[in-house]
Design brief:
Elements: H1 6-9, H2 17-34, H3 46-58, H4 63-71, H5 74-78, H6 82-89, H7 91-104, H8 111-127, H9 129-144, H10 151-171, H11 175-189, H12 191-225, E1 232-237, H13 240-249, E2 261-267, H14 270-283, E3 286-293, E4 306-311, E5 317-324, H15 325-333, H16 335-338, H17 374-381, H18 389-399, E6 404-408, E7 414-418, H19 423-430, H20 432-436, E8 438-443, E9 446-448, E10 460-464, H21 474-477, H22 481-494
Parallel strand pairs: 2-5
Antiparallel strand pairs: 1-2, 3-4, 4-5, 6-7, 8-9, 8-10
Helix pairs in contact: 2-4, 3-4, 3-9, 4-7, 4-9, 6-7, 7-8, 7-9, 8-9, 8-17, 9-11, 10-11, 11-12, 12-13, 19-22
C-alpha cells in the first residue's frame, strides 16, 4: 500500500504551510517509532495509525487532531515520553494523545472494568470532544481488520463496538460512522442473521435501485423545469444492520421495509427543501402518515431532513429524503462537522450548536467544555457518586443509548427524553427545582398521574407548589438516572420519610 503524508494534507481544507510541515514531521516520527511492529494481519502497525488519521481528516478535523491520530498509540505502545511529544508538536497535541492513551489502559472486560472504562471515556470527553472523535476513528479501523484478530477476541470486540461505540456515534449524530460500525460488528455477533439479511436484502436493493434510477430522471426533469438550482441527487443504500433492525419489527417480511434504498435530494436552502417536497408530491402520491419533517422537529442527535414515502405508480413504494447540503454534512459527520477545520477562523464565532448550547467556540479551543453535549456531562458527573455496576450500565443504556421521544413545554420548547419517560423525568429535565416541587402535571391539556408514560409530541405542563416535595414513591415513577439521582439526593438531604 503506497501512502504518504500528502494523502492527509490534501484532505484538510485551507491548511497552512506550518501545519502541513507538522503533519509531515508527525508522519515520519510515527513511522519511525512503530518501526517493524506488526499487527495480527501481518501489516505494519504504522498502517493503523495512518488509517486512523485519514478517517480524522474525513471527519474534517484540524491538523492538531490529525497529528494526534498519527501519534495516538505512541505513549502506550512505544514508550514515547510526554515531554518529547510536547516539544515536537505542542501542548494541544499532547493533551489529545494523553487523553486517548488514558482511555486505552482499561479494556472493556467484565462488568466492573467495562463501566469504569465507560466513565473514563465520557470524563475525557467532557474535557475535549476531540479525544472521543480520535477514539472512534481508531475503533473504526480496528473493526475493519477484525477478521485477523484471534477467535477468542473477535466477538468481545464486536459486542463492545455494537453496545458502546456505535450508540455513542449515533448520539453524536455521526450517521455514516454509526452505520459502518454496526455493519462491521454484525457478522461476528449474529452470523446466522447476518447471512439471512444479506440474502434477503441484496436482490431487493438491486430492484429498488432500478426503480430509483427511473425516479431520478423524472424528478431531475421536473426540478429543472421549476428552476430549482444547485441540486444534487443520489441513491442511499440502507446499512445491513439497520435493515435487520427493521426486519425484526416486520416479521422478517422484506416487502414491508420501504427504505432499503432511498433517493436523496440535496439543495442549498431550507425553503428549497419544502419546494422540492411539493414537486415530489405533485409527481407521486405520498403514503398517508409517512411524511416525516425532521427539519421542523430535528431528532435528538441533531439530524435534520424531510422523509416522504411515495407510490411510484409502478406497483412499488419508495422513500425520498430531502435536505440542505449543510444538513447532509451534519447527518454524515454529526458533532465533528461543528468542530471541523473547514470553517474559517473568522467565521467560527458564527457557528450555532443548537443541541449543545448557544455559546460559540473560542479561537483557542475547537470545542469549549460548555459545548459538550449535556448527556455526556451527566454520565461523567456520576463518577463521584458511582451506583452499583449493574444499575449504572442499565441506566446508561436507558438514558443515553435508547430511542428518544420529543415532548414540548407549553411555550413550544423541545425536550428530548428516553422512550417510556414519565412527567417526573420531564420535570427534572426542565430544572431540578421544578422537579423537586411537582404538584401536578397536564399532558395535552388534561391532568395525568405522575407515572403516566409520555409519548412523542405530547405538550407537558408542570404545576409546582412550594410545599410539594419528592417522596420515595417518586423513585418508582422516574425512569431516568438523572431524575432518580436528584430525588434520592433531596430525600437524603432533607431526611424525609414516606
Amino acid at each position: 500500500m503506497t501512502q504518504s503524508p500528502e494523502d492527509l494534507i490534501k484532505k484538510i481544507e485551507g491548511i497552512s504551510k506550518k501545519d502541513a510541515d507538522l503533519i509531515r514531521e508527525a508522519y515520519g516520527f510515527a513511522e519511525s517509532i512503530h518501526g517493524n511492529t506488526k499487527r495480527y494481519s501481518g501489516e505494519p502497525y504504522f498502517n493503523h495509525v495512518f488509517e486512523t488519521a485519514k478517517t480524522i481528516t474525513e471527519f474534517g478535523m484540524s491538523p492538531d487532531t490529525v497529528i494526534a491520530g498519527l501519534l495516538h498509540d505512541s505513549i502506550e505502545d512505544e514508550g514515547v515520553s510526554e515531554e518529547e511529544i510536547e516539544r515536537r508538536f505542542g501542548k494541544d497535541v499532547l493533551f489529545l494523545v494523553d487523553g486517548v492513551t488514558k482511555l486505552g489502559k482499561v479494556r472493556f472486560r467484565g462488568a466492573e472494568r467495562h463501566v469504569g472504562s465507560l466513565q473514563k471515556l465520557f470524563l475525557a470527553t467532557t474535557k475535549d470532544i476531540r479525544v472521543l472523535i480520535i477514539k472512534l476513528a481508531d475503533r473504526l479501523h480496528n473493526m475493519k481488520t477484525l477478521k485477523y484478530v484471534p477467535d477468542g477476541k473477535r466477538v468481545r470486540i464486536a459486542k463492545e463496538t455494537m453496545e458502546v461505540y456505535a450508540p455513542i456515534a449515533h448520539r453524536l449524530g455521526m450517521g455514516k460512522l454509526t452505520g459502518e460500525l454496526q455493519d462491521l460488528a454484525f457478522p461476528y455477533i449474529y452470523p446466522e442473521d447476518y447471512e439471512k439479511v444479506k440474502k434477503l436484502a441484496e436482490p431487493k436493493r438491486a430492484e429498488k435501485n432500478r426503480s430509483l434510477s427511473k425516479m431520478h430522471k423524472i424528478l431531475s426533469k421536473e426540478l429543472k423545469k421549476e428552476r430549482i438550482h444547485n441540486v444534487q441527487t443520489d441513491y442511499r443504500l440502507k446499512h445491513l444492520y439497520s435493515i435487520y433492525e427493521k426486519l425484526k419489527r416486520k416479521d422478517f417480511d422484506i416487502d414491508r421495509v420501504y427504505d432499503i434504498s432511498a433517493l436523496r435530494v440535496l439543495v442549498p436552502t431550507v425553503s428549497d427543501c419544502y419546494k422540492v417536497l411539493g414537486i415530489v408530491h405533485s409527481i407521486w402520491r405520498p403514503l398517508p402518515g409517512r411524511i416525516k419533517d425532521y427539519i421542523a422537529f430535528p431528532k435528538p442527535n441533531g439530524y435534520q431532513s424531510i422523509h416522504t414515502t411515495i407510490f411510484t405508480g409502478e406497483g412499488e413504494i419508495a422513500e425520498i429524503q430531502i435536505r440542505t447540503y449543510k444538513m447532509h454534512e451534519e447527518a454524515e459527520f454529526g458533532i465533528a462537522s461543528h468542530v471541523s477545520y473547514k470553517h474559517n477562523r473568522s467565521d467560527i464565532s458564527k457557528i450555532k450548536l443548537p443541541w449543545f448550547g448557544d455559546k460559540a467556540p473560542t479561537k483557542k479551543k475547537e470545542m469549549p467544555s460548555e459545548e459538550i453535549p449535556e448527556w455526556v456531562r451527566e454520565i461523567a458527573s456520576s463518577e463521584d457518586e458511582m451506583p452499583e455496576i449493574e444499575e449504572f450500565y442499565s441506566n446508561l443504556k436507558f438514558d443515553f443509548f435508547r430511542d428518544r421521544i420529543f415532548v414540548f413545554t407549553p411555550l413550544g420548547d423541545v425536550v428530548d427524553l428516553p422512550v417510556d419517560s414519565s412527567p417526573i423525568d420531564f420535570a427534572y429535565r426542565i430544572h431540578t427545582d421544578v422537579g423537586n416541587h411537582v404538584f401536578g402535571v397536564k399532558v395535552n391539556g388534561k391532568m395525568v398521574s405522575l407515572d403516566e408514560k409520555l409519548n412523542n409530541g405530547d405538550i407537558v405542563e408542570v404545576i409546582t407548589k412550594e410545599k410539594s416535595s419528592p417522596s420515595r414513591k417518586w423513585l418508582e415513577y422516574a425512569h431516568t438516572a438523572f431524575a432518580k439521582r436528584h430525588i434520592k439526593n433531596y430525600i437524603q438531604k432533607n431526611r424525609k420519610r414516606d
